Amino acid sequence: DADVTQTPRNRITKTGKRIMLECSQTKGHDRMYWYRQDPGLGLRLIYYSFDVKDINKGEISDGYSVSRQAQAKFSLSLESAIPNQTALYFCATGTGRYNEQFFGPGTRLTVL
Amino acid sequence: GQQVMQIPQYQHVQEGEDFTTYCNSSTTLSNIQWYKQRPGGHPVFLIQLVKSGEVKKQKRLTFQFGEAKKNSSLHITATQTTDVGTYFCAGPSTGNQFYFGTGTSLTVIP
């Protein structure tokens, strides 16, 4: 959805580099999520946040950190990138009683 | 931890044939959602099911939630090339996490 934007859309980096992926939303949703997608593994939750002061680890948080700078902004950092972090990363917002999710366009990250 | 598995992982069908993907959770789900991801795109919400045994239809798509609320299915009647993509089920877990299934990639052969 155009209401959820991610930057950059593509990134190639080297092992050991620090990388930040940014997500912004204009939907006004409090809940925000970071997922990674790998072939055959579906979408796996890295971190999620229910408001600016609430940050929670997801299924695969090791090697990642996040920052919720504002209701509309949720950034994902890789402090020291490694090749097995090569993946497609999606940011999403959630809303409603059953947490319908709205995804950004994704960031394709390659770690050499 | 909770697991949400989908079968099959891949499905190739001739245009006009039917298609079904199945979703199975290791735990009972309060609700289940279905998403579609077109090739090169991002997941897009299709529908959510809440009640045990619930069945919902969207044109040629039929969604079903199992009686025990641990499984679900998506059936597409008479597939079209526009149905191509990966279909994911997803559901909440305890602690407010959200789990996506492994996805079923559908290819429709014209």
Largest sheet of chain B: 6 strands, mixed
Could you list the spans of chain B in which at least 5 consecutive residues all have pLDDT below 50? none
Q: How big a fraction of the residues of chain A is strand? A: over 45%
**Largest inter-chain interface?**
A-B, 26 and 27 residues
SS class of chain A: mainly beta
In terms of structural class, how would the helical and strand content of chain B be classed? mainly beta
Q: Rough shape of chain A?
A: globular
Q: What is the element layout, followed by pairings?
A:
The complex is a heterodimer of chains A (112) and B (110).
Chain A: E1 4-7, E2 10-13, E3 19-25, E4 31-38, E5 42-51, E6 54-57, E7 65-70, E8 73-78, E9 87-95, E10 100-103, E11 107-111
Parallel strand pairs in A: 2-11
Antiparallel strand pairs in A: 1-3, 3-8, 4-5, 4-9, 5-6, 7-8, 9-10, 9-11
Chain B: E1 4-7, E2 10-14, E3 19-25, E4 32-37, E5 43-49, E6 55-58, E7 61-65, E8 71-76, E9 85-92, E10 98-100, E11 104-109
How would you describe this structure in keywords?
heterodimer; A: mainly beta; seven-stranded mixed beta sheet; B: 110 residues; mainly beta; six-stranded mixed beta sheet; five-stranded antiparallel beta sheet; 11 strands; 55% strand; globular
